[in-house]
Input
Amino acid sequence: MAPLRYYTDILLPFILLLISGVVFLCRRNGLPINWPFLGMTPEILLNIHHIHNFATNFLKLSNGTFLLKGPKFANIDMLFTSDPANIHYILSKNFPNYPKGPDFRRIFDILGNGIFNSDHELWELHRKTTTMSLFKHPNFHTILETTIKNKINKGLLPVLEHYDVTDLQEIFQRFTFDAICVLLLDYDPESLSVDLPFVPCEKAFTDAEEALLLRHFLPEKVWKLQKRFGLGKEKKLSEAWKAFDEFIYKCLSQKEKEDEESAGLLTSLKSGFSGQIGTSCDSKQFLRDVILNLMLAGRDTTSTTLSWFFYLLAQNPSVENKIRKEIQNKTGGRNWKTLTSKDFEGLIYLHGGLCEALRLYPPVALEHKAPTKADVLPTGHVVDKETRIILSFYSMGRMEGLWGDDCMEFKPERWFSKGVNGIGIKHEPSYKFPTFHAGPRTCLGKEMGMVQMKMVAAAIVCNYRVELVEGHLVCPSDSIILQMKYGLKVRVVPITTINQGG
Output
């Protein structure tokens, strides 16, 4: 026994010293520690509550691309990248080799056969039909502007007038939920009203998105087990799924009972997708998938951008004043309600402010890709069909190499360009600013989203000054959509009160 104890006394300190050395070296370079068998799982679990900033830190330290190792037995290694060359290559130059893939479809099973979950022929069908049935509908822009103005006048402004302190993120979520329901389903749930009613489908989006992010970092067997037994966030995801189905199917059934079909967007969508079943063998379920995907895009990306935009404005009152003055100059003393979508194109300060919010806080913070065959990325990283690639759009907006040493500053002027006709809007390549995605999958609703955000922003800026509630913590949530974890508690002060010195 003595020799064994002798060797133990020698080896144990040596092993502890070796481990300490590894930890020290890894901590010194700031990168996650790759532990034997466990991979980088301990670091992931310790930082899951701020995963986007965690990813940004290790990407900055690794020239924009880093392999995050999972446990040996789990097959969840993820290649994170924020390198523009890789982004351009994956989303554009070699697009056919980087579909969403089967892993994506399993993680986002709640989206069914919708456009976000589709590849190849089914994706092409969605792209073409949605464009023709929705965005190229002869009355689309009129319906859009009318819907937004009505919702501002009858929902947004009365609610802001009623509450001294409010959660502006919740207000925007209710606003965009109502608006997208009117556009797609020809039905207004009126979740944005003074009494702020509870609408299960409206609240279900947040619960679903938090669970979907967690699925990226858990072994598939683990989250499937949680789903089977109704545990953790999987329980909330199942409840959200039920809420979506009940709401959408009820709206579709109600429209079918009506004697006359309107010439609205729902009729156009139903006609465009008539006879299509995807892989579900059920045309009604397929229509549900189409609508849910469009609702997700219409509610969350717009409301999230508006929330971060007003958070940034509240911290930069000089920018808020410049935007207000710009709108006043454009209207020439007329009411802001007279502004048309064409007028908004000339509001460069407002446009620049929204682009800054989108750069710093992109609604879709990351994108999941899987190559169909082995490939070499422009950065030299080798990938194969087992590689899970995560495109970190959140990190891209925070890279000094892309946006300069002042990349963390809110500067609408960053989006100005000087020409012979004066100052105009600067357009950045999509592989540098991929908020609306890039390549063939570029967002179909980009124009729609910008028009809606500008109308809402103008209505609030012209009537109120937004002030953050002192002590309220604002930080990104752990979700596939970059919402605010604790909301955006603000005080809205009428402009008339400010002008009167109140």
Q: What stands out?
A: Residues 12-26 have pLDDT under 50 and may be disordered. The CA atoms of residues 205 and 467 lie 27 Å apart. The chain has 20 helices and eleven strands.
